[in-house]
Amino acid sequence: MDLTAREIDIATPTPTVILHTADAEELGAHPLDRLRIEQAERTYTGVVETTTELVEEGVLAVTSRLGHVTGPVTVSLAPKPRSVAHIRTKLEDHELEQSDLQQLVRDIDRNRLTDVELGAYVAALHANGLSHEETRHLTQAMTDIGERLDWSESVVADKHSIGGVAGNRVTPIIVPIVAAAGVTIPKTSSRAITSPAGTADTMAVFCDVEFTTDEVREVVEETGGCLVWGGGVELSPVDDKIIRAENPLSVDPPGQVIASVLSKKKSAGSNRVLIDIPYGEHAKVTSLVAARDLAEDFRLVAEHLDIDIACTITRGGQPIGEGIGPILEARDVLAVLDGGGPLELRLKSVRLADILFDLCDVDADATELLDSGAALEKFREIVAAQGGDPDVARDDLRPGERRHVVTAGRDGIVLSIQNRTISQVARRAGAPRDAGAGIRLHCREGDAVEAEDELFTVYAEKAGKLTEAVEYNAGVEAVRIGDPDEALIERR
Which residues form the Pyrimidine nucleoside phosphorylase C-terminal domain (predicted)? Predict the structure, then answer.
C-alpha cells in the first residue's frame, strides 16, 4: 500500500506509526502489529496504532522514535522480532540459549519490542526465574550493549544496595569515604521507582547528576569518585528499558536484578563490588535464606565477569536514617559526614566502607576518615565537580513548609516501622518529585512511647499532597505500637 508519511509530535517509547482505521483494515493490520515502511532504498519498522481522528486516510503518522520519515512511502505488514518467540519460550518455562538472550537484549536496545512484549518478558522471569547459566549469559549480553568506562587504576570500587529500606542513604557517605582513601569509585545510581527517593534524587539536592560518559570520566579523574544518575549515561542502557516494564508490575525478578546490577558495574569499569542485601519482613528480600541464596547467585555471576565481589546481608526491618525523601535524606547525609547524624546510618556506612576497603586490599579506616573531616572535604569536592555548591550546610536544606505530626494513639512499645507503608506515606506527600516532601521519624523500633508522643512528621510542598498523605496514613499502620510482652514475643 502506498501512503504519505508525515511526522507527528507524540512521544512514544517504541518506534510507532499511526494509521487511519480504514487503511489499517485494508492492510489487515491491528494495533501493536509491525509495519514495514519502504522509502527510496531505506526500510523502517514501526509499531501500529490506529485512529479515526489523528490522521486522515492515505496518511501515515510517524513518531520521532522511528526517525525522520516524510513523503511517499510503501507499507506492508512486517513479521514480529524473533525475540518474541523467545519470550514465549520463557513463559512456557523452558531455558533460553545464549543466542536467544543476545537477540532479546539487542531487540530491547533497539526498541523493537512493544510495552506489552516487554511486560511479558518481565512476567516470564518473575514466574519462572533464570538458571545460573541464563543469568550469566543475560548479564554478559547486557554488558556488551552500550558504552564502557576504562580506568588506568588496577582497583576500581563500587557499591550497590538491593533496596527496599526507607532512608537507607549510605551511598553518598560511602563514596566520599572511599575516594578520600585514594580508591577510585565511579558510582552510578538510580532515581526512585517505587521509593520516596533514590540516591540520584538525594544527590540532585546538592548538584547535577545527569552527565555524559566523558563528563563522568572528567569528574572521576578530578576527584576520584562521582555520584551520578545511571540513566544519563549509556552504560548497560537496556537495564533502564527493562526497569520501565518492571515498574507498573512492581516485580523485580532476582536473575534480572543480578544481570542489571553487574552489567552496570562491569560497564562502569568496576572490579571490586560490594553488594548490600537488606532483608526483613517489609524489605524486598524478606528472609535470611533468600538473602543468602541471592548472595551466592551474585558471587557466581561476578566470578564469570572477573569481578571480585563481597555481599553483606544486613537487617532491613525498619528505616535506616531519620529522613525519608530527597531533602530530608540529604540532611541526614550531611549530618553524618559532619560527625553526627542518625547513629544507624553512620554505623552502617562505616561498616560497609570498611568491608569495601578489605575487598580492595586498602589499609584505611572509615571511622577515621569520617571523624577527621576528610570524607566531608571529598564530598564537597565531588559536589563542586558536579556543578553544585560545596559549602551548602544542613540548615540550608529546608523540607516542605506544610507539615503534619503523627502521634501515638496509646502507651506502649514501637513494635515495627513498616518500610513499604512509611514509604507510601512519603510518596503521597509528593516525594521524590517534590524534593522537600517526605517524612522525619522521631522513633525507632523498641522505643517506649506514651499516648500523644510524636512518631513522625509528614512534610509536603503542596497542601493537596499533604492531605492525601494524611488521609492515606489514617487507614494504615506505618508505626505499630504494642504492649511490652508483644515485643518480646515478636523478637523471639
Answer: 413-480
| Residue 72: strand pairing partners | 4
The one-letter amino acid code at 403 reads R
pLDDT at 135 over 50: yes
Give the chain's domains with CATH numbers: 2-78 (2.40.40.20), 83-129 (1.20.970.10), 157-234+242-394 (3.40.1030.10), 402-491 (3.90.1170.30)
pLDDT score of 492: 47
Q: Cα separation of 459 and 428, whole Å?
A: 10
Q: For the whole prediction, is pTM greater than 0.90?
A: no
Residue 157 has pLDDT above 60, yes or no: yes
pLDDT the model gives residue 251: 77
Confidence check: pLDDT of 438 > 60:
yes
Q: Is 304 exposed, middle or buried (0-12, 13-18, 19+ CB in 10 A)?
A: middle
Q: What is the pLDDT of residues 5-14, one digit of tens each?
A: 999 988 887 8
Q: Which residues are catalytic?
A: 252
**pLDDT one-digit tens code per residue, 453-471:** 999 999 999 999 999 999 9
